[in-house]
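Case study.
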Amino acid sequence: MSAGTIGTDGWEAVIGIEVHVQLRTRTKMFCGCLAEYGAAPNSRVCPVCLGLPGALPVPNEQAVRLGVRAALALGCSIHANSRFDRKNYFYPDLPKGYQITQFDWPVATNGSVRIRSGDEERSIGVRRLHLEEDAGKSQHDRFDGSTAVDLNRAGVPLAEIVTEPDLRSPGEARAYLTRLKQLLEHFAAVSDCNMEEGSLRADANLSVRRVGSTALGTKTEVKNLNSFAHVEKALTYEFERQVAVLEAGDEVRHETRLYDPGASETRPMRGKEEATDYRYFPEPDLPLLEIDEAVIEEERDNLPELPDQLEARLQAQYELSEYDARLLGMTPLRAVYFESVVERTGAELAKSAANLIMGDLAAELNRRGANATEEQLMSPETLARIVSLRSEGMLSSGTASEALRLLIGEEAGQDPDDVVARHGLAQVQDDSQLLAWISEVVQAHPDESARFRGGEEKLIGFFMGAVMRASGGKADPGRTREALTGYLAAETEA
Amino acid sequence: MTRIDPETVRHVARLARLRLDEAEVDQLGSEMSSILDHFAALEEVDVARQEGPTPRSIDPFLRQDVESADQLTLPVESLAPDVRAGLIVVPRLDALGGKNGES
Amino acid sequence: MIRTIDEARSLLAGGSTGRDLLERAAARQAELESEDPALNAFLSTIEPESQLGSGQEAGPLAGVPYAVKDNICTPDLPTTCGSLILEGYRSPFSATAVARLDAAGARLFGKTNCDEFAMGSSTENSAFGPSRNPFDRDRVPGGSSGGSAAAVAAGVVPFALGSETGGSVRQPASFCGLVGLKPSYGRVSRYGLVAFASSLDQIGILTRGVRDAGQVLEIISGPDPRDATCQDRPLPRAAALDGVQLDGQVIGVPEEYLGFGLDGEVRQAFDAALGQLEQAGARIREVSLPSAPSAIPCYYVIAPAEASSNLARYDGVRYGFRDGSGAGLEDLYSRTRAGGFGAEVKRRIMLGTFALSAGYFDEYYGRALLVRQAIANDFERVFDSGVDALFTPTTPTPAFRLGEKIANPYDMYLSDVYTVSANLAGLPAVSVPIGNIGGLPVGAQFMAPRFTEETMLGLAVRLEELVGYAPPDVDGAAA
Ligand SMILES: [Mg+2]
Ligand SMILES: [Zn+2]
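After joint prediction, the assembly is written out as follows.
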C-alpha cells in the first residue's frame, strides 16, 4: 500500500523526522569508558556513567568534533557558543535521573538535505543538530514483571537531528533517511548508522491536512521504527488512519503511538496520560560549549566533496545520467575509484567503466556485505585494462565478465592481459577461423539454412547461437552476425 | 500571598517521585506558600536580559577521546541489589517505551 | 587534643607517629562522646590500630590527622551525607581533595556529621541526630558542616574539610570560633563532593588559625581533569600570606549587611574589629550592594532547583536505601525517596521541582538566574571601584539553640543572609573569629574578587593578629 492510495486522495501528510545517531568515538560522551558495542553487560561503566554520588561529567572533544562534522555535512551553521542542559525524567536506564543534552542553544541549526521525490528534487530543512548522551538499554521481557538494564550504552555520545516538517509523504520520509544515512555514514563518516544495532534510531511526527491548505493539523509522534521500510509502512498506516479519523468527522488526538511491525499498525502507548515535564535547565556541572573557528575549519576539511555537488560534477564531467551519477556517488570511495579508472581509460570510456562498476563489481560487493569496497576487489588499473580490452573488441561483454570474475577470484592480483590470454578469453580477430566455424554450422543444418533462404530471417538467431557454441564463446558477436548474414546470402544466390 | 494548592503539591510530588500522604500534602502546601511569599524581592531587582546562552565565567574544558587510565573495576554484582546475568533488574514500569528514540 | 597543624608537627618531631596522632584523636573523640550530651561530631572514624605505623612520614602534612564532612567521598569510610538513603554507602572512589591530602601525608581520622545532603544551617537535619556546639551543648554548632566545626573546635583534629553551598563552612566557623574558608567557585575540584547545588558547591576548610587554612587550601586547590568547572589558575601559596600588609588596602563595608536582624552585640564586636583594621592602616569605605535583599530568595530558588535534579539519582534502583514494598517501578521510586529523605530535603526537592516546572519556570528559576547575574554585577562594580575586599559580619547572631529555628524553615534560611551572596557570585570568602558574646563565639568575614585568596587570607591573618582571639574557656572545650 504505497502512499497516496485512494483513501488519502485530496489529503497531504506533514511529516517531521527526529533521528538519534551514535557518534563513532572510542569513549563515552562524559566519561572515559569505552563506547564499544557488544561488551558483556554492565562492563563498560564507571562512577560517572553509573551516576554514583560525587561523580561529574567531562565532555568528549572528539564527540564535539564529529557533531560539528555531521552538522557541516547537513549544511548547518555552527554556533561558537552552545550550552548543555538537563532533561529530567526517571527511568531505570537513566542512572542520573536526567539526561545531559542541549535544549535552548544547540551546537548547530538550519541545515538542509536534498531528496528525490518522484521526478523532482526537494530540499528538506534540518532545524537543528545537538549533542547529548544515550541512555542504557532496557529489556522488558527478559525477566517477567521486571525490566533488565545494561548501562554499557549509558553515556554513549549521540547527535540528535530534527527536521522541519517539510516531508510530504511516507516515501519522502524514507528518501530523507536514506540520504541522511549516506551523508553521515559514508561522507561525514561520523557513525555506523546501523538501525538494527541501534546506532541510528528514528522517530517521526505526522499530521494531515487538505492538499493546498497551509494549516497544521494535530500531530502524533510515531516511535519504535526499526528499519527504513518500517518507517514507510508505519507512516503510511498513520497517514491513512488520521485521514479516516478526520473524514469520519472526529479529531486526531495528540499522542505518542508505537508501531507494531507484526500487525503493521500503530497503537497508542499506554501510560502516557500527561505530557512529561522535563524541567530543562542549564547543566551546572559544565561550562558553555565553545567551538572556535579553527575546529570548524578542520572538520570542514575532513569532509569529502558532498553528494549533491559530486553527482552534479560526475554528470557534467563524464556525461553520465543522473541515475548513474547517483549510483557512482553512493560513497566517496566508489566515486574516487570510478574516477581513477576513467583517468586511465579516458573519459570516452566512462560509461562502460561505470557499467562494470555498477554491474559486476557492485554485485560482488553485495555478496561480500556492508563495508567491502571496490578497491578490495581489484585495483583501478586492472579494471581500466579490462574496460580498454572490451572497447577494442578483444573481449565481449560475456568474456569481460568472465575476466572480472577470475580477477576477483582465483586470478586476483594477476596481470589482466596474462589472465585473458591464459584463459583464452580474447575474441578471435582473424576471419578465416570465423568463416570455418560458420560453414561448419551451416553445413550441419541444411534444413534451417533452407528455411532461412526461404525467408525465415529470424533464424539468424539460431545460427548465431550455434556459431557461439562452436567457437566456445570466443567469436565476436558483432563480426559473427555480419559474416554469417553474408555467408547465408551468398549461398542463396549460388 | 502565593497559594500552592494541594493539587499543585500532588503534581510536583509526582514529578519528584515523592510519595506524600494527605497530611504531608497540606503541610508542604503551606510551607511552600510561606517560603515563596518571601520571594517577592526577586521581582524588585532590575535585571538585564541577554541574547545567547548566559556566559559562566568558567573556561571551556573538553577531554581527549581516550580511555581513562585509572578505570575502576566495578564488579557487576556490586552495582545493584538485584543483578541477574550481569543485568540490573528492577520492577517494571507499566507503560512500555523508552525515551531516547527507541523502546 | 591537637589544635593546630604546627602542634601536630611538634608531636611528630617529638617522636610520635601518624598512628599515635590518630590514637590521640580517637581518645579525644571517645572523651567527648562519653560526655552527656555527647558532641556527636563524627558519624564514622577509622580504627587507629589498623592504620600504618610510622611509615615514612613524607609530604607537607605528613602524619597530620584530619576529618572530612560526610558528603565527601572516601573509600575507607562510609559516605552517608547524613541521610538514611545513603546509610552504609561506600564510595568506590576518593574525592580529589581527599586524595590530594592523603598524597600530602595527612591521615583521615573520621567523617563528620552534617545536615542531610548539606541542606541546613544547624546539623539538625542530619538523619543521625544533631551535633552540638562545643561551647554550649544546648546550642547548634552551625551547619551544614557543623560536625567538622565541632570536631576542630573541640580539638579532635587540627583541620577538617567541610562544604559550602550557601555558607555552610563560614557560618559553623563563626558559631564555633574557627576560621572558615570558602574558596572561589572552581578553585577546588568538586569530584567526590556529593552534589547539592553544582553551580554553588565548594569544598571548604575549617581550622583554628588562618595560616593552617592557607596551607590546606594550597594542597587541595588546582585543576582536575575530572571536574570541568575546576579552573586552571596559579595556586594560592600559603607562604604569600605574610607579604600582605593592611596599609593601602581598601576595605568595603556594604551598608545592607549591617541590617537584616544583626544582633547589637555582634555589631559591636564587628565595629571593634573594623576599628582595629582601620588603625592598622586599612582604608574603610562604605559601599552598597543593592541586590543584597534578593540574595536569599535567589539562592532558595537556584539551590533547590539544582538539588531536585542532583538528588534524582537516589531512586533505590542501584545503591542505598530501597523500599520495594510497593508494586512496580513508580512505587519503588516514590516509596524509597519518601522513606529515605528527611523533611528538609523533601521540602527543597519540592521547592526546586516546582521552580523548574512548566508554567512556573520563567517566574521562578528563569528569574533567579537573572537576579544572580545582578548580584554578581553588584560585587564586580564595587571591586572595580577600587575596593580590595569586603568586610561584613558572618552571621547576624551567635549560635542559636537546638530546636529554636527548626519549626520555621524560612527563619532557618535567614541565618545564611550574609553568606549566600559569595556563593551566588562565586567569590572566595573567609570567616575569622572576632570575639565572644555571652560565652559564644562570633566571626566576621572577608569577601574578595575571584581567585584572590592570597590577598584575602593575608588580610585575615592581619586581622587575626590584631584581634588575638581566644575561644571561650568551657570545660571539655578546647580552651
Ligand atoms: Mg534526544
Ligand atoms: Zn563511564
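Observations recorded in class. The pocket of zinc ion (ligand 2) is lined by residues A 28, 31, 33, 45-46, 48-49, 155 (CB under 6 Å). Chain B touches chain A through 44 residues (CB under 8 Å). We will return to this complex in the next lecture.
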